[in-house]
Amino acid sequence: MLPIEIIGTGVYAPGEPIDNQELKNLAGIEFDAEKTEQKLGIYQRHIAHLRGINETTADFATKAAQNAIEKAGLTPDDINLFIVATDTPEFITPATAILVQGRIQKKETWASAFDVSASCASFTIAFDNAVRIMATDKTIQYAVIIGVYNMPAFVREKDAFGYSIFADGAGAVVLKSNSKTSQYLTGQLLTEGTQWDYIGVYAGGTRQPVTKARIDAGEYGLQNLQPLPGDRNVRLWPMVVNKLLEKANLPIDKVNHFIFTQINKSVILKVMDLLEQPASKTNFIMDKYGYTGSGCVPMAFHHAVTSGLVKKGDTVLFMASGAGLAVGSNLFIY
Fold first, then answer.
1. Rounded CA separation 294/310 (Å)
2. Helices (H), the chain
3. What CA–CA distance (Å, rounded) separates 282 from 255?
4. Rounded distance between C-alpha atoms, residue 151 and residue 165, angstroms
5. Which CATH number is 315's domain given?
6. How confident is residue 230, by pLDDT bands cut at 50, 70 and 90?
7. Domain limits at 141?
8. What is the pLDDT of residues 207-219, one digit of tens each?
9. Is residue 166 located within the same domain as residue 23?
């Protein structure tokens, strides 16, 4: 157990929400809105460029972090560690976290800033790493961890799947070390790197630089190279939850609230059934925000806290998975 406490949360999503019918008009696409709503639970989302808003990843991350820092009652200079968790960075380099630090602290400081990129599991993995850094470096009293997503920037024109699912948004938490009440109990990670070639943004790195020929061939932006296994999260999430709880030596009934990757409401309900836990122990935000990837877990946590679903002293479990394959989970006493 590590004496780390979440003392502030914040969210940000750009512009007015876009419902499914308006999305069809704005993006010039067709998709099964009823299936998207009833199975996935997605009724609306925020997409900056479809609203003509000139904001991208660093803007979302900065605003969510500022909201969390203010909620924590801190000043920008109190933060000693900035981690941005995303697979949709502002640039390949420098790290988005460095930009966020500059925008928030506006000067050279003794803070550390870096990104964690592990697809949609980025936030849970960043959270696990942050608490371990704080536990071993006593000079780091406060940290801000930001999960942020800007995948619509990579969705190609007329991609109905991409536009109907992916959305812009960010969620942030402020961590405090040496807590007397809250505890980070443990984390559990899982990786399957042979599944790298299912879905991702493959152009722009060293293997496939962006060229005119590649753009003309449509080999850029978000690409679905092969279908994802349909039962992947239903198989993985209960397995990882049980491994995490075994590691912590904690019965599942002691968990007060579960927060999952917010990509499919029906899958979350199925997993809760498999875990033999009531649906009242989880919450959903995809109806408001669509799928915000690395941002969805901290965004869902923020809403659980602000709505009273999660209270101080509750035991909370985060579970996130993403392309690659990467899985991250966290267990903590809020």
1. 20
2. 20-27, 33-35, 57-71, 96-105, 122-136, 160-165, 212-216, 232-248, 265-274, 286-289, 296-306
3. 11
4. 10
5. 3.40.47.10
6. confident
7. 5-181
8. 999 999 999 999 9
9. yes
